[in-house]
């Protein structure tokens, strides 16, 4: 097994835990406070849980062809759901702009945004050292970069919303565009190549 795989497996599990904990917190805060950027970001984080868990399983099996089709199907499904989320978020953002609705965010919201940005920066940095070991690890690093970019939008929107009523809706609209582009890119990248030599690594075909 490649020496980078054990670290990549830990990072995949950490990404799944991040998605569950931070994603559910951001989603709950966004829905309870009517903050578009928060529920959009939270949903995007939760959508990264399935591919991270599938990747964790594939790394455990040596990143051969076992489980490859399952990962492809997961990525295609997530890419479709990301574009669906982008459409819903864009419609909600336009509605909020026209209705001049603005959420009332407390300091806990900015704290969550800062924590999400910091944790994602650590995860993304960690994945830079292992992404060259396999194409699917490079794709995983790209997904983390997308979440990191969304976290920047989330923090900017949450800070600006303290002074500008339109900031949350505008950041939600920008996030929707980002998610749609990410969904399209993920759909194109979901056709992962099979491992060389059949199974690849030391895993068994299945």
Short key terms for the protein model shown above:
mainly alpha; Alpha-lytic protease prodomain-like; 7 helices; 76% helix; 0% strand
Indicate the CATH class. Mainly Alpha
Q: What helical percentage do the residues reach?
A: over 70%
Based on the structure given, which CATH architecture is correct?
Up-down Bundle
Oligomer: single chain
Structural class by SSE content: mainly alpha
Write the CATH fold name: Alpha-lytic protease prodomain-like
Largest sheet: none
How many domain units? Answer: 1
Query: How far do the termini sit from each other?
Result: 18 Å
Number of strands: 0
Structural account:
This protein has 7 helices and no strands. By secondary structure, the protein is mostly helical. The protein has one domain: Alpha-lytic protease prodomain-like (Up-down Bundle), CATH 1.20.1510. The longest helix is centred in the middle third of the chain and has 32 residues. The C terminus is likely disordered.
In short:
The protein has helices at 5-33, 36-47, 49-60, 68-99, 107-128, 135-160, 167-189.
SSE layout and pairing:
Layout: H1 5-33, H2 36-47, H3 49-60, H4 68-99, H5 107-128, H6 135-160, H7 167-189
Helix pairs in contact: 1-2, 1-3, 1-5, 2-4, 2-6, 2-7, 3-4, 4-7, 5-6, 6-7
């Amino acid at each position: 097994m490649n020496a980078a795989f054990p670290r990549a497996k830990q990072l995949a599990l950490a990404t799944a835990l991040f998605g569950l904990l931070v994603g559910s917190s951001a989603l709950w805060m966004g829905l309870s406070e009517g903050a578009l950027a928060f529920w959009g970001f939270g949903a995007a984080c939760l959508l990264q849980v399935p591919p991270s868990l599938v990747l964790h399983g594939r790394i455990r099996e040596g990143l051969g062809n076992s489980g490859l089709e399952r990962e492809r199907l997961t990525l295609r499904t997530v890419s479709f759901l990301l574009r669906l989320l982008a459409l819903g978020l864009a419609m909600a953002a336009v509605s909020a702009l026209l209705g001049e609705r603005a959420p009332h965010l407390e300091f806990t919201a900015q704290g969550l945004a800062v924590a999400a940005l910091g944790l994602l920066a650590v995860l993304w940095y960690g994945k830079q050292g292992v992404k060259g070991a396999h194409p699917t690890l490079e794709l995983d690093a790209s997904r983390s970069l997308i979440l990191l970019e969304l976290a920047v939008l989330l923090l900017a929107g949450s800070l600006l919303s303290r002074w500008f009523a339109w900031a949350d809706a505008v950041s939600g609209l920008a996030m929707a565009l980002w998610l749609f582009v990410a969904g399209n890119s993920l759909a194109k990248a979901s056709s992962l190549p099979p491992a060389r030599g059949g199974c690849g690594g030391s895993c068994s075909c299945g």
